[in-house]
Task: inverse folding
């Protein structure tokens, strides 16, 4: 009996730590939203100086800083000045590998409220986002520029370094023209084009994203080789490209819509064309010790809550591709959690 009680007590402690994670995330989000790491970049600051710099209430900020010190984001000196730790430096806006934009997005209303509806989604099968807001995620972002901008910043942050690596994982130079379907502001296509000087590219995006994509492409000096087309991949995609690249697009849709997008690519491409998916692959069997796989399963829940999509196994991708008359030729691992899936017309 005593042994059983010890096991239960240990389990309860673990659950407490897991639940505390949500509150810790709010603390980190507040630090990112207030830009504390940017102000602590140069020298130690006391609470009053930092409160003035961030236009915050000093006594409340002092409590936040002590909580941040307790979780290792800042260091508190003996005279109550604060400096950044190496962990906290990842919340600086322009730091390599910065996490600030992702921390800000994490608790934006667009993300936070649908997660509260997760039990409803599991009970009903309804997309939590649609249940909460009455429209889908993409329609919401089209009419909420602040949330959309946070999303773009987070996507750009995720892409820093990663997309350059992806550009080297596949021989994109074998093509003459590629279309990046749902390519955001060109964060993947730009390093692909920079690496392959004879290649032409098109970003295909919703109108509210296309505006920012054109600005980014022009800023990189690639407007002569890269254009931006506006539209919805559920309706059609630009025809005639040698390859259609879809990075983290298909996981945002359930099978019926995923098949529609892939079939539109299949219809648009010439006989020699290819579809290049860049997605996570769920393992067929769960290993609780595999942290990367664990993150992918949590991402699967995020897809269920927000756009209504899902992460898939390789077998599931084969099935979806086959329904769109595409065959999976090979899968290529990358340095990160994603894989490159190369498909061709059947």
Result:
């Amino acid at each position: 009996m005593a042994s059983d009680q010890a096991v239960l007590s240990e389990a309860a402690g673990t659950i407490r730590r897991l639940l505390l994670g949500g509150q810790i995330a709010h603390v980190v989000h507040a630090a990112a939203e207030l830009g504390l790491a940017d102000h602590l970049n140069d020298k130690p600051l006391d609470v009053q100086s930092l409160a003035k710099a961030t236009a915050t209430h000093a006594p409340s900020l002092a409590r936040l800083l002590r909580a941040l010190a307790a979780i290792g984001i800042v260091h508190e000196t003996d005279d109550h000045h604060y400096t950044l730790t190496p962990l906290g430096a990842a919340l600086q806006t322009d730091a390599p590998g910065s996490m600030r934009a992702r921390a800000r997005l994490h608790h934006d209303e667009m993300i936070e409220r649908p997660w509260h509806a997760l039990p409803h989604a599991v009970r009903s099968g309804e997309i939590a986002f649609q249940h909460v807001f009455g429209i889908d995620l993409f329609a919401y972002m089209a009419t909420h520029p602040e949330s959309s901008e946070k999303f773009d910043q987070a996507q750009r942050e995720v892409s820093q370094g990663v997309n350059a690596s992806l550009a080297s994982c596949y021989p994109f130079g074998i093509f003459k023209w590629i279309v990046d379907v749902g390519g955001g502001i060109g964060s993947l296509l730009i390093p692909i084009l920079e690496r392959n000087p004879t290649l032409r590219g098109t970003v295909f995006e919703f109108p509210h994203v296309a505006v920012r994509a054109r600005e980014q492409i022009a800023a990189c000096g690639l407007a002569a080789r890269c254009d931006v087309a506006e539209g919805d991949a559920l309706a059609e995609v630009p025809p005639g490209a040698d390859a259609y690249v879809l990075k983290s697009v298909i996981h945002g849709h359930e099978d019926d819509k995923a098949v529609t997008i892939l079939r539109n690519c299949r219809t648009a491409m010439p006989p020699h064309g290819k579809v290049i998916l860049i997605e996570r692959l769920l393992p067929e069997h769960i290993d609780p010790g595999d942290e990367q796989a664990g993150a992918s399963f949590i991402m699967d829940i995020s897809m269920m809550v927000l756009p209504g999509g899902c992460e898939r196994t390789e077998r599931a991708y084969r099935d979806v591709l086959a329904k769109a008359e595409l065959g999976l030729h090979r899968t290529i691992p990358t340095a990160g959690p994603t894989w490159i899936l190369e498909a061709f017309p059947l």
Observations:
- Residues 62 and 145 are 32 Å apart (CA to CA).
- The chain has two domains: 2-96, 152-345.
- The domain at 152-345 is CATH 3.40.50.150 (Rossmann fold).
- The longest strand covers residues 326-333.
